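Lecture notes, continued. The same structure-token format from the folding unit now serves as the input rather than the output. Read the line below as a description of shape only.
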């Protein structure tokens, strides 16, 4: 059973490409169920900074996933070649574990990604596309991710993208004291942005959200102001800063809305940060006079400086990942071998019983003892024929490859049960797609 990963992230693709490939929470179940008949087991980790498909199938081809990326992005053939990365087998498994530990995040040790990996695991299970291999792999990743945060300093002092956005604005504008700030979005990320703004002494904080009830609820918790979404242009006309972070699958702030708002500002520049994926603010708005627009890619340099304090801890986390990979690979080899041995024996036994029954019908004069001796003989023949193939499947180095060959030659099913108690996966923390 081959594990394959195909994806893009903040290191391989700019935000303009990442937003084309983003899969929203509402789209995920349908996407998984559409891909599963083609690629077998499948799960997707989709955050502000990555979209990664993990699949497991004995004969999986990366071309199926690549074609899907091109379809959802409507990109020209070949245009995503430099953005997409492919990992197979151990490399794919190790990548997911590093992601869960925060080693592959834009912010080293970032705290939200573990919950997002857990969300991907749960969603695939609920969609019915999580089989034994991916189930075990995601459980292993969740296990080492939690261990990394409990037993190393990888998350010590780590900040979220929402925190980085507030720091970016504070540094660029010389502080937030006396500044009026509009936060668009009242989800998890919006709440973090608002809390960080308040802790940095922002003058006035206003929250706008399509669901006004959620805006008022969050505003009441933080002691700030909520406005109806219909008043967005009015707010953009007067605030100093806007930070947008909704989970909408489409543009929320259009060029036309901004043109109207900027026309009322009498030359005052509007400082805007868009940390949504896909972006909330129309990309073309960056050319408008009077708007200073920044996105996730612009935060990268600010974040890199913060990472330095956790580089040493990353070495300790790497050792945990190595140990977890070894455990997963040992389980995988045993799982594949055990499933193949069981399937081959069941197939051989079915053939033996069918042929035995047919032969005995042609020999009605045999005594009961003679019939038993014939049955014993057929069992012995089957066991001797299977002995060497099954021995090769148990080979510690070549067993997985040999098992794949046997399944292909004998037409054996690859449907194995879920991993069960291989590793515990923590059910706490919801893990919405916010950032990583």
């Amino acid at each position: 059973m081959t594990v394959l990963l195909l994806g893009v992230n903040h290191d391989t693709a700019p935000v303009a490409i990442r937003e084309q490939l983003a899969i929203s929470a509402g789209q995920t179940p349908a996407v998984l169920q559409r891909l599963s008949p083609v690629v077998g087991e499948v799960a997707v980790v989709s955050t502000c900074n990555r979209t990664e498909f993990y699949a497991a199938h004995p004969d999986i081809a990366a071309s199926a996933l690549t074609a899907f990326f091109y379809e959802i992005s409507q990109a020209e053939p070949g245009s995503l070649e430099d953005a997409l990365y492919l990992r197979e087998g151990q490399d794919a498994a190790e990548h997911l574990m590093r992601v869960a530990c925060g080693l592959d995040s834009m912010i080293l040790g970032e705290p939200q990604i573990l919950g997002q990996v857990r969300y991907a695991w749960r969603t695939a299970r609920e969609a019915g596309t999580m089989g034994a291999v991916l189930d075990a792999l995601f459980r292993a990743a969740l296990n080492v991710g939690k261990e990394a945060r409990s037993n190393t300093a990888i998350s010590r002092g780590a900040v979220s993208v929402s925190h980085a956005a507030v720091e970016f604005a504070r540094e660029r504008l010389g502080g937030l004291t006396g500044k009026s700030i509009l936060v668009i979005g009242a989800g998890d990320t919006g709440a973090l942005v608002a809390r960080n703004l308040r802790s940095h002494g922002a003058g006035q904080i206003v929250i706008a959200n399509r669901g006004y009830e959620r805006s008022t609820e969050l505003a009441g918790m933080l002691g700030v102001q909520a406005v109806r979404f219909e008043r967005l242009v009015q707010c953009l006309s007067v605030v100093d800063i806007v930070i947008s972070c909704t989970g909408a699958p489409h543009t929320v702030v259009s060029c036309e809305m901004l043109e109207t708002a900027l026309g009322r500002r009498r030359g005052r520049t509007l400082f805007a940060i868009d940390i949504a994926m896909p972006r909330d603010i129309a990309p073309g708005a960056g050319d408008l006079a009077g708007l200073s627009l920044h996105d996730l890619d612009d935060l990268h340099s600010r974040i890199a400086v913060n990472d330095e304090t956790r580089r040493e801890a990353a070495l300790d986390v790497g050792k945990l990942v190595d140990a977890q990979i070894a455990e997963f690979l040992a389980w995988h080899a045993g799982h594949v071998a055990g499933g193949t041995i069981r399937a081959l024996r069941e197939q051989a036994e079915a053939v033996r019983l069918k042929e035995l029954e047919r032969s005995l019908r042609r020999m009605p004069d045999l005594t009961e003892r003679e019939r038993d001796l014939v049955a014993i003989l057929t069992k012995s023949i089957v066991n001797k024929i299977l002995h060497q193939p099954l021995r090769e499947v148990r080979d510690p180095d070549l067993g997985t490859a040999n098992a794949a060959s046997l399944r292909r030659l004998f037409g054996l099913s690859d449907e194995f049960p879920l991993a069960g108690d291989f590793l515990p996966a923590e059910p706490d923390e919801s893990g919405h797609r916010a950032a990583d």
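Point for the exam: Residues 417-433 have pLDDT under 50 and may be disordered.
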